[in-house]
Every structure is written in C-alpha cells, then in structure tokens.
Amino acid sequence: MSQRIVVTGAGGMLGRVLTDQARRAGRQVLALTSSECDITDLESVRRHVVTGDVVINCAAYTQVDAAEADEDRAYEVNAVGAGNIAQVCAQTGADLVHVSTDYVFDGVFDGDRRPYEIDDDTKPINAYGRTKLAGEQAVLAAKPDAHVVRTAWVYKGGDGTDFVATMRRLAAGDKAIDVVDDQIGSPTYVDDLATALLEIADGRIGAPVLHAVNSGVASRFELAQATFAAVGADPERVRPVGSDRHPRPATRPNYTVLAQERSVAAGMTGLRDWRDALVAAISAYEGKTTAAGKGAAGQLPSTP
Ligand SMILES: NC(=O)c1ccc[n+]([C@@H]2O[C@H](COP(=O)([O-])OP(=O)(O)OC[C@H]3O[C@@H](n4cnc5c(N)ncnc54)[C@H](OP(=O)(O)O)[C@@H]3O)[C@@H](O)[C@H]2O)c1
C-alpha cells in the first residue's frame, strides 16, 4: 500500500498544486496549512506525522526581499522549521522530501558559466538563500536519507502573483514593459515540479540532493517575451533592461540555471523544456477560464 503523503505549507502555490495532484492520483493526503501546522513548533509537527508517512515540505518563508530585513524570522521557518520536520521524521520513521532553491548559489564563476550540478559549492548572496541553505543542512543532519529537492523560478501562470501570472496580466494591456535580461535561470511550471516531487516521494531515487526544474535556460526577459507570445500578445512590447534599473532590497544571483543530468542519472524523470511547460501552463489557465465562462453563461436565467 502506498504511503500517506503529508504536505506542509499546503496553502501555498506548490502545496496546493501538489495536494490536488496527489489526490487526483488516488493518494491519501494530509494537507496542512500554516494555521494547521506551524513548522517552527516542534510539537505541532509531531502531532501530525506518524510512522510510514512521507512528508513533502512545501512550507517556507518565501519573500526574498522581506527576508533582508527579517532574516531571523526567515531562518526560524526555513532552517529551524525544516530541521523540526526532519527530526520528527527521523524519530517516527517517516520519509521526507524537502524543497529548496537555486538561490543557494551565487552565480559567480571563475571561468565560463555553466548550469549548477547537485554537488557544486553553495554560496548564497541574500538572506533568503542563506536561510534556505541552512534548512538543507538542518534536514540532512537530522535525517541523512531525506531528499532535498532544489527548484527555481516556480510559476503557475494563473490568478496569483508569480512572474508568469504577472506577465500574462500585463500582456492583456497595451503598454510596453521593461524586464531584466541579466538574471538567467530555470523557469519551472509548478505542475511539473509537483509531478517530480511525487516521483521522488516514492523513494526509488538514490541521491540526497536533487534538481527538479524544467530544462533549458531563460532570462527573465525571455520568459516574459515567451509569455506574451503564448497569450497572443506582441513580444516586442517587452524591452530588455539591466537589473540596475530595478533595484530591489535583495540582490539576486544573475545566473542560477540548475542542471538535471545527475538527478536523472539517479533515477528522476527529467522535466520537459521550459517553453513547452509554459505553453501548457497558459493553456491550462485559459482552458479553466473558458470553462468557467461557459459555466457562468449556462447559469444565466433564460429570457422569458
Ligand atoms: N516560488 C518560487 O519561485 C520558488 C523558487 C525556488 C524554490 N522555491 C521553494 O518552493 C517551496 C514552495 O514555495 P511556494 O512558491 O509554494 O511558496 P508560497 O506560495 O509562499 O508558499 C509557502 C507556504 O509556506 C507557508 N508557511 C510559511 N511559514 C510557515 C510556517 N511557520 N509553518 C507552516 N507553513 C508556513 C505559507 O503559509 P502562509 O501564507 O499562511 O504564511 C505558504 O502557504 C518553498 O520551499 C520555496 O522556498 C520556490
């Protein structure tokens, strides 16, 4: 019989998609929002996890800019909270899949830059990255057989506030927009990430650290242009600018492409190319809104 899946951070973007996908696959899921299980409270975590579960930790302090002024709180959630889950899993005999980030890397290379592999040296350059790296370390210290899964630039492209969703809304207007072209990474569709996490949770993959991102390479500018194109807007309305034109409280690394090769060699199914995933995300959203529109029309009172 397959293990029960416990999702922490189940109210977030990834947590919600993962929970839906697991339930649709017929899995038993205990989905815990932050109000149902605060991962910074060891006893709260202990109350929910039993022997034989697999916990997928989607809970995190994810506000990259706010973390600069609030690193203690970010550390409490991203490092202490992650460590709490690992400790409880180790004590109860539950499995653990913990989600981490490309921002554990600095994007600085001695020679030619290349995608980061799972065993490359980490060196975060902002508070969020430091606290997430501390979380990876706390997880593997308390539970060496846990999986730490790094991902990057996650989006759903729906009604939320992720990058693709924002670009989709801007595309519906008629203004030109400036988007940075000197941040380069691995855009990742949240549905594809959830599928990878469920595969990893099945426990047949050997490596403790894995990279789960859509394949290929994109700058924020290219991702914005591709989103405009996918919704039928003119990609030329997106103009490339440097990050210096958009100063933010947290410095972003300018190159954090994650390589999947070693993760695939360890047994993980590689994720599709980011452009195909983006088109799928936009189609899924448009399919849903069209269906909702039809449903609403169907409910209109008929003209007497
Ligand atoms: N989004 C990205 O681009 C991206 C990139 C790389 C890695 N990741 C990683 O992917 C994972 C999922 O991120 P996401 O994009 O789904 O973020 P999200 O939408 O911000 O979700 C994070 C969830 O964690 C919950 N949470 C915060 N503090 C908590 C606590 N103390 N106890 C329990 N739950 C708590 C939040 O609940 P409240 O809202 O109620 O506080 C929220 O539901 C995180 O580990 C993140 O670091 C994301």
TrEMBL record:
<dbReference type="InterPro" id="IPR029903">
    <property type="entry name" value="RmlD-like-bd"/>
</dbReference>
<dbReference type="InterPro" id="IPR036291">
    <property type="entry name" value="NAD(P)-bd_dom_sf"/>
</dbReference>
<protein>
    <recommendedName>
        <fullName>dTDP-4-dehydrorhamnose reductase</fullName>
        <ecNumber>1.1.1.133</ecNumber>
    </recommendedName>
</protein>
<dbReference type="GO" id="GO:0008831">
    <property type="term" value="F:dTDP-4-dehydrorhamnose reductase activity"/>
</dbReference>
<dbReference type="Pfam" id="PF04321">
    <property type="entry name" value="RmlD_sub_bind"/>
</dbReference>
<comment type="function">
    <text>Catalyzes the reduction of dTDP-6-deoxy-L-lyxo-4-hexulose to yield dTDP-L-rhamnose.</text>
</comment>
<feature type="domain" description="RmlD-like substrate binding">
    <location>
        <begin position="4"/>
        <end position="285"/>
    </location>
</feature>
<dbReference type="GO" id="GO:0005829">
    <property type="term" value="C:cytosol"/>
</dbReference>
<keyword id="KW-0521">NADP</keyword>
<dbReference type="GO" id="GO:0019305">
    <property type="term" value="P:dTDP-rhamnose biosynthetic process"/>
</dbReference>
<comment type="similarity">
    <text>Belongs to the dTDP-4-dehydrorhamnose reductase family.</text>
</comment>
<dbReference type="InterPro" id="IPR005913">
    <property type="entry name" value="dTDP_dehydrorham_reduct"/>
</dbReference>
<keyword id="KW-0560">Oxidoreductase</keyword>
<comment type="pathway">
    <text>Carbohydrate biosynthesis; dTDP-L-rhamnose biosynthesis.</text>
</comment>
